[in-house]
Amino acid sequence: MMAEFMDGLFSIFFVETLINALLLGGVFALLSLGLNLIFGVIDVVWICYAEIIMLGMYAIFFLHAEGGMPIILAACCGIGVTALIGWLTHRFVIGYLLQAEPINQLLATGGLLFFFQGAAMVVFGIEFRNVGVSLGSLSVTEDIYLSWTRLLSFVLATLTVVVLYLFLSRSYLGAAIRAISQDREIMILMGVDTKKLYLLTSAIGGGLAGLAAALLVLQYDVHPFIGLSFGPITFMICVMGGLGNMVGGFLAAFVFSLLITVGGYFAELEWGYVMAFTFFIAAMFARPKGLFARNS
Amino acid sequence: MLNVQNVSAGYGKFQALFDVSLDVGAGEAVAVIGPNGAGKSTLMRVISGMIPAMAGQIEMEHKSILDAPAHKIVGMGIAHVPENRRLFPRMTVEDNLRMGCFMPQFRERFEERRSFVYDLFPRMKERRDQIAGTMSGGEQQMCAIGRALMSDPKILLMDEPSAGLAPVVVHQVFDLIEKIRSEGLTVLIVEQNVRQVLRVVDRAYILESGKLHSEGTSDELLQSKEIQKSFMGV
Description:
The structure holds two protein chains of two kinds. Chain A is mainly alpha-helical.
C-alpha cells in the first residue's frame, strides 16, 4: 500500500496532475476575481455572479457559432455584454439596496440568480450548446498532455490579476476604488462621485465575468444551469481567501485546485471535490475570516 | 469669500441648524464655537456638501454651492478636514494625499502640492509609505490636513482638529493651524478648545442649540465674562 503510494508520488502522471492543478487554479482565480472586487468595494455579495458568466457564455456562443463572428471578437463582445449586465445590476437593483440589511441584499442578488436562470431557459431553451472551438492540447512529452485552453486560462488569469493590481495601486481611479471601501461617506470631500464609482466597479466586475465566460465556453457546453456547477466553488474560494481580499482569493484558488486535482489523482475526481469541501469547512472553523486574513 | 445665509439643515426629520448666517473674508481665520450638539459639525457638513441644506443659501465667491453636485464643491476651492480625521486607514500616507488630489483638474499639480505638504509637515515625508491607520493621533491629523491641502483650496474647513488628542499634541495642532494661516490660507474652524482656538483666529461665532447666539472678535470674546463662564470654566 505504502509502496504503491510512493510510486504514485513520483510517477510522471503525478507531475502532470500538479501542472493541471496549477492551470485549474488559474481558471478558479479568474472566476473569483470579479466577485471579490465587487464585494471588496461595494460590500454586497453577488450571488448571481456565476449566472452572469453563464449569460456571457451564451453571448459568445451566439455571436460566434450563430453569428459567424471570429471567436476573439465574440469574446470581446461577450465581455462588453457582461460588463453591461454588471452595470445594469448595480443601476437597477443594488443601487437601491446600499443601505438595506445585508440579508435583503443577498435575497435580491439571489433573486437575480433565478431570474437570469429562468430567463435563459425561456429564451435559449434547455439544450446544451457547444461553441465548437477547440484549441487542442500541447504534448509536453509522450505521456503528458496539457490543454491549451487551460494554459490560456492560466496565463490570462495571471495577467488579469497583475493588470488589476497595477490599476488599483497606481491609478487615481484605482486608489478611489480602494478608498471607497474604507470610508464611503467622505468620498464626497475628495470630489468623488460615489454613484459613478460603484457603477464603474460593477461594470469591471461584470467584464471579468465575461473574461471567465470566454475561457469556460471553450471547455464546457452552455446551458441555463451551468452557473450552478461553478458558482458554489467561486464563493468558497472568495470566502476562503477572505471576502474582498483579492490576493487571498488568488491564493485560495490554487489551494482548492490542488486539493481537487490531487484528490482526483489518488481516488476519483468526485473525491477530490469532497476533500476540497471538507477542507473548506474545517478552514472556516479554524480561520473564519479566511485563510489569509490578517489578525488585527 | 464664503457666505452662509439663513441656512437650516439636519438629518432626516431632526433639524440641527436653524437659520444660521455667517461669513468669512479672504485671508481671515474664523472659529465656530459652542457646546456639544450645538450644530457646529452640521454647519461644516452642509458647507462641504456632505448633507443637503433644508433652506438658505451658501455662496463661495458669489457662486451658489447648493446648486452644484456635492462632489464638485471641493473643486470650488473648499476643502474639509472632517471630524475624527477620517483618513483611509488601510492606505499609505502618500495614497491618502493622492486622494486629496483626485479631481481631474488637480492631478497635474500632484507633485507640486505633495512637496508643499511635505515642506509644511516634514514628518509626513518620513512617514510617506506608512499605513495611515497605524500612525499616532497627531500624525493622523497632519495627514488629514495635508490631504485637504492637496487640492490647493481657497478655504480650509476644520472640524474639531484637536478632539481626542493628548494635551501635548493639542498644542502641536494649534501650532499647525498658525503655520497654515501664515501661508495665507482662509480658515473656518470648529473647536471645543475655546481658549486656545481664540488665540489663533480673528473672529468667532457662537452657536447654541443650532442657532447663532453671538459673534465677536477674538479679543472681545476672550474678555467677555459670559464666554469665560460658559466655555472656559472660569
